[in-house]
Amino acid sequence: MPPSSRPPLPSLNALRAFDTTARTLNMSAAAEQLHVTHGAVSRQIRQLEEQLGVTLFERAGRGVRLTPAGTRLADTTYHVFSQLEQTCDQLRRAAEGAPFVLSCSGSFLARWFIPRLDQLKRDCPGLELHLTAADEDQPLRTGVDAALRFATPPWPAGQTVIELAAERIGPVMRPDLLPTGTDATPDLLPTLPLLETLSRPQAWPEWCRQQQLEPNGLHIAQSFEHLNYMLEAALVGLGVAIAPEYLVEEDLRTGRLIAPWGFIETDALLTLWLPDGATDARTRQLADWLTQRLSQ
């Protein structure tokens, strides 16, 4: 269909009224958020339904619920408005000279990024960076320019994902956890207490499969909610942790931990996430620096 013959889109105000109502499932609450009257929201949604030729909401008690058509439209408006908000916020803060805000997991922040902040400032003196901790499964929130995440493709629509490096995981432990005079062979693992995180219960089985070991014989001594806790437990000698190589580089370099059985690549990648189309000079500079440092 030629561009000139495309049907006109509904008004932005009508779509915003619908989107806010879809999120709250209450027209009065939507009106309060939009600083308009209940009647204005109701009229906008009615006009939108007439233009699209579908019913978007049904009454449900004191509120409303989405129809199948409403659910389909709400999935789109949620992503579109979220991207608009993030992009406009990024443009505004960049114009004001605000720092580039990068979020990542607390463990990656503490164990990889902070030890390299001085190097980043030397390599990229014009890049003012603000780091913030966030869980990897949290959506990219307003006020954050990009997020570092270990994730597995395919990537979702509505996001720009820059692939930085492959994830590598392996067993790490204190040197004195090995029995004196014992060879560090994988056959030793079933005799040692193993540590894992609740978010990655597949890590040990995945490593064992690639090493052609039987994972059923392994003994998980303790599970931890956060990877940082698991690594601290390994550092005090409570067991063998299964960890990403990037997060234990410094511990391996100083000899506080050893990795006698090496690391394997997983299907996951360390990635930089940002709103779709939001790549700018600062993002490219940061992505290039991360790629370079992660390969060293």
UniProtKB/TrEMBL annotation:
Keyword Transcription: yes
Domain of life: Bacteria
InterPro entries: LysR-type_TF_proteobact-type (IPR058163), LysR_HTH_N (IPR000847), LysR_subst-bd (IPR005119), WH-like_DNA-bd_sf (IPR036388), WH_DNA-bd_sf (IPR036390)
Residue intervals of the HTH lysR-type domain: 10-67
UniProt keyword list: DNA-binding, Transcription, Transcription regulation
Biological process according to GO: DNA-templated transcription
PANTHER family membership: HTH-TYPE TRANSCRIPTIONAL REGULATOR, HTH-TYPE TRANSCRIPTIONAL REGULATOR TRPI
Homology family: Belongs to the LysR transcriptional regulatory family.
Protein name: LysR family transcriptional regulator
Classification of source organism: Bacteria, Pseudomonadati, Pseudomonadota, Gammaproteobacteria, Oceanospirillales
